[in-house]
Design a protein that fits this description.
This protein is α+β, with helices and mostly antiparallel strands. It folds into three domains: 78-397, AttH-like domain (AttH-like fold), CATH 2.40.370; 405-612, Dna Ligase, domain 1 (2-Layer Sandwich); 614-742, ATP-grasp fold, B domain (D-amino Acid Aminotransferase, Chain A, domain 1). It is 26% helix and 35% strand. Strands 13, 14, 15, 16, 17, 18, 19, 20, 21 and 22 form a ten-stranded antiparallel beta sheet that branches. Helix 2 packs across helix 3, helix 7 runs antiparallel to helix 8 (494-510) and helix 8 (494-510) packs antiparallel against helix 10 (572-585). The longest helix is centred in the first third of the chain and has 25 residues, at 2-26. The radius of gyration is 33 Å and the shape is elongated.
């Protein structure tokens, strides 16, 4: 009898166990009215099993190599660098640079700045750019992030147009900021709390392989790492006419995050909260909701006042109850979070200002930023809340609104052929600075696109750096004099340095080009004369001979006016003498001292450009971004009658024209200021002469409005082709514009 009862209870136990296993692991949960899954009565048992699964999964994760730089080989998915920081005075900063992988990578940026008085700036629109590699950092749309020291310091630079929230004003804004880390790195998913991960898994139904699949979506070809730190530096804004509007030094604290994923378009929602208090406490809490998967994943960390960083292990945040849509953002909200050692109560007071600052096209999300006043365990602080919501844009249909720079100087390593003493501007090798200097390489690139861009570059060729080296080898006194300048620059004393420079210049001017070097220059001169006559059918040809040093006219350094230009040369002998004069000018006191002060080597590579000289009605210089803080909304044009040398040298007061350029590249003449234009320089004989300008011409602008706008359009094209502001020497003949980069 006892055995029979035992068998009955044993069989009933087996049936009950099987039923429980079915309910926990196999029975499908009923559909929910919202998109979030709920744990149900079996949640505790699933949570225990999930803890084991998560620990095993994290233990087996491969080691991730941390890098501040963009991931080089990104076939699909995205890669991003984000800084979110705030201050007790209300200042807030959000910067985001995103790269979309693919055969032709794309890029997008987010800029959000809120100053202490509440004035807020964002990008006018979410433009999609072609991705452009930036050595040592990130660059896109006027924002540059220079990695000064890995996982420690960044330089954050911006120069562009931002929208001032509230009054529909577009302003020129610049900032120069420094990020400094103040904590160790925390990684996701390596440092992800197994409690939070298990909670996310246990909220959904269990099916064979579903947990591993959900975890793989968080960790396979995806991840992130973050640090707490501080940003400080100056933000400046400018009025429409280029005057300084305000200059504010900001100090904000928050997080810097690197995140990446091998997949696109997977998130339905995201929440990121970054908050800090004066005592040094910092909070970084993130929540994501994947489409068609386990719903809520939370992770984050707390920075303690003693600089220790602890992972968040639990939180009562339920994303279905918090900011579920952009129209359901509460005024106040309380979140409780715990680490292994501490508990924190966060009381959020969310600003009512709604700012749709960023359309994250790579993730099909619209991101909103709200500033937050917060109490962390009663300690008052500030924070930034970023909310992402899915949109229905098709990532495959993204159009590039900002192309990458098409004109780039070629690397020396990309040229395999032997370089001689001369290179025609059409030769691909002429676009390499190491061979022909900054001016020569720029002119070569300008020549390559002149037909479709509405201007003409006078034909010419470059006397290469190799030619100067050959000349110095044949004239050992010159080489010794250059060495003497180097030594004088080490133990600098101005009088001695100047004497060494003067001696070197004199030795150059006493020398003559000879041998194979002379023959090569004369061969190229003969070819150039033939080419010019075919184009213009001019009997009396004149040429311009211009210095082109290696290291000049770069984005970081301009040596305009430092070295000589000789105009009006006619005979071969005139041109050979002019080449020597240009070489000599590169070692004059003015030029050598400038290089020394800017950390350049004394013995710069020196090339020379020989071009046909045009006879213009008017000429001058155009700055595609106004020299006042590099303003991209204003183009500055200076002009005088005759050759542009009078403008470049500053011998006369030219006309000054300012052209307004809006965010859609629409142009309008903003200002025309007449200069005295007392004289002009014209070609004459074997050189140039200065002649007086009539009173009628002095009282009339050199250029008509239509000509100003046509020139400005060329400037916009060049700005976009180079991806940076340029200063361009231009000349207007009876037929068309000619252009050359200084």
């Amino acid at each position: 009898m006892v055995m029979e009862l035992y068998n009955v209870f044993f069989q009933a136990g087996l049936v009950m166990s099987a039923f429980v296993v079915y309910l926990i692991f196999f029975k499908k949960s009923p559909a929910n009215k919202d998109c979030y899954k709920h744990g149900g009565w079996s949640y505790p048992l699933k949570y225990i099993a999930a803890r084991v699964a998560v620990k095993t999964w994290i233990f087996n994760l491969p080691t991730t190599q941390l890098s501040d730089l963009p991931r080089a080989h990104l076939n699909q998915g995205w890669d991003t660098l984000v800084i979110r920081a705030t201050s007790p005075d209300g200042s807030t900063l959000v910067l985001d640079v995103r790269k979309l992988g693919g055969e032709k990578p794309l890029a997008q940026i987010e800029v959000y700045i809120k100053l202490s008085d509440g004035t807020t700036y964002t990008l006018p629109h979410s433009a999609v750019h072609s991705w452009e590699d930036y050595p040592g950092g990130w660059s896109c749309g006027g924002l540059k992030v220079q990695v000064v020291e890995q996982r420690d310091r960044y330089r954050l630079l911006f120069n562009g147009l931002l929208y001032r929230v509230g009054d529909n004003c577009i302003q020129h804004v610049t900032f120069n900021l420094l990020w400094a880390s103040a904590s160790r790195v925390t990684q996701f998913p390596t440092d992800w709390s197994d409690q939070l991960a298990a909670e996310a898994l246990a909220l959904g139904p269990w099916q064979p392989g579903c947990w591993r699949q959900a975890l793989e979506r968080c960790g396979k070809d995806a991840g992130s790492w973050a640090q707490f730190g501080a940003v400080q530096g100056r933000v400046q804004t400018y009025t429409e006419d280029g005057k300084l509007d305000r200059s504010e030094y900001i100090r904000v604290r928050g997080t810097r995050e690197r995140a990446w994923s091998g997949r696109n378009n997977e998130l339905r929602r995201s929440v990121t909260l970054v908050a800090v208090t004066p005592d040094g406490t910092g909070v970084h809490l993130q929540g994501i909701v994947h489409k068609n998967s386990i719903r809520q994943f939370l992770h984050g960390s707390i920075r303690m006042p003693d600089y220790n960083v602890r992972s968040i292990v639990s939180s009562d945040l339920v994303m279905s109850e918090f900011c579920e849509t952009a129209k359901e953002i509460p005024n106040t909200y309380t979140i409780n979070i715990n680490t292994n050692k501490n508990s924190f109560k966060l009381l959020l007071r969310i600003s009512k200002e709604r700012c749709n600052v960023f359309e994250a096209k790579f993730q099909n999300q619209d991101n909103f930023v709200r500033t937050v006043n917060i109490e962390i365990n009663g300690e008052h602080g500030t924070g930034v809340l970023e909310l992402g919501y899915q949109n229905n844009d098709d990532i495959e249909s993204l159009t590039i609104t900002k192309k990458s720079a098409e004109l780039k100087w070629r690397n020396k390593e990309s040229i395999t052929k032997d370089i001689g003493y001369c290179l025609a501007l059409e030769d691909p090798a002429a676009s390499c600075v190491d061979f022909v200097g900054g001016k020569g390489a720029s002119l070569a690139l300008l020549s390559s696109v002149q037909g479709k861009e509405g201007y003409h570059v006078p034909p010419g060729f470059c006397v290469t750096v190799k030619a100067l080296q050959k000349h110095c080898q044949k004239n050992l006194q010159i080489s010794e004099a250059i060495d003497a300048i180097k030594l004088a620059g080490v133990n600098y004393e101005q009088t001695q340095f100047k004497e060494k420079c003067t001696k070197t210049v004199d030795l150059f001017l006493e020398s003559k080009i000879s041998g194979s070097l002379k023959e090569d220059i004369e061969i190229h001169l003969k070819q150039l004369r033939s080419k010019v006559k075919k184009i213009n059918e001019i009997e009396e040809l004149r040429f311009a001979v211009r210095s082109s040093a290696v290291g000049e006219d770069s984005e970081a350094l301009s040596a305009a006016g430092q070295n000589d230009t000789v105009l009006g040369c006619q005979s071969d002998e005139d041109i050979l003498k002019a080449v020597v004069k240009c070489w000599a000018s590169m070692f004059s006191f003015t030029s050598a001292y400038y290089r020394r002060q800017n950390g350049q080597v004394c013995e710069c590579g020196g090339a020379v450009v020989v071009q046909a000289l045009v006879e213009p009605r008017a000429a001058g210089v155009m700055f595609t971004r106004h020299p006042d803080a590099g303003d991209p909304s204003r183009i500055l044009i200076t002009a005088n009658y005759g050759l542009g040398e009078s403008v470049v040298s500053g011998s006369v007061e030219p006309d000054t024209m300012i052209v307004k350029r809006d965010i859609h590249n629409e142009l309008s003449v903003m200002e025309i200021k007449l200069g005295s234009k007392s004289s002009r320089i014209v070609a004459s004989g074997t050189g140039v002469d200065e002649e007086s300008v009539s009173e009628v011409e002095r009282n009339t602008a050199c250029l008509l409005d239509d000509e100003i706008l046509k020139l400005a359009r060329i400037g916009v094209q060049q700005d976009e082709l180079w991806g940076a502001g340029r200063d361009i020497e231009w000349a207007l003949t009876k037929m068309e514009f000619s252009a050359m980069l200084r």
